[in-house]
# Entry
Amino acid sequence: MLGKPGMGLQIALTALDSGRIGIASQATGMLSACLHEGVSYAMARRQFGKPIIKHQSIQNMIADIAVDHEAASLLVWSAASLKDAKKPFTREASIAKLAATESLKPVRLQGPADFRRLRIHSGQQDRTHLPRRAGTTIYEGTSEIQRMIIARETESGMSV
# Structure
């Protein structure tokens, strides 16, 4: 028995919240790898007589990945700190997971980091060493579920 009778659902939901912090951490690590690989490649690859990292369009992509990574890192730390302090962290865990995993989705031209990373590496044929986003947007609840949780928790925290 993991807890008192009748507490099973609450225990399961807390486990999901904790898992969301883990998945957000995984996605943040993937963003870090994207950033490292993107910068390394952009420093090594030359075009028009200079490393492509000197081109503004590449700098913009790298800056966007850095912003995504920093934001995800801070959101994960915030959720984990609340959990460690034994305070409610459902909303923060969902926000961290949503932000970190969505940053990896290749959905639009100037969008998330995975797509920008691929654009930075566009001249490179073998991309097998680059991190994959796997199922980070699915594990511990889809992005749509995270949005529902965030809205519900935000609403319940507001005094109307």
Remarks:
- Residues 50 and 98 are 37 Å apart (CA to CA).
- Residues 106-116, 123-127 have pLDDT under 50 and may be disordered.
- The beta strands are 46-47, 50-51.
- The first strand starts at residue 46 and ends at 47.
